[in-house]
Amino acid sequence: MRRALKPGGHIVVATFGPMGPERCSGLEVMRYSADGLHGEFGSPFEKVAGAGEHHRTPWGSKQEFVYCYCRITT
Question: Given strand 10-16, what is the order of strands in its sheet?
């Protein structure tokens, strides 16, 4: 992301939340809190906001998602 964004650029990333599924399409997944996801980007990124939601799948189950909105400072 550092190479893809100019200083002051923004990014929004979504992933499974802490209570999301452990597997998706038969594959193990990583689950994050908004702060944990922000931590994956490192110090050049400033967390602007984070949010979560519960998505209902076409099969009727709920999956927790987390969104992290960051800005690169350098």
Answer: 10-16, 62-72, 45-56
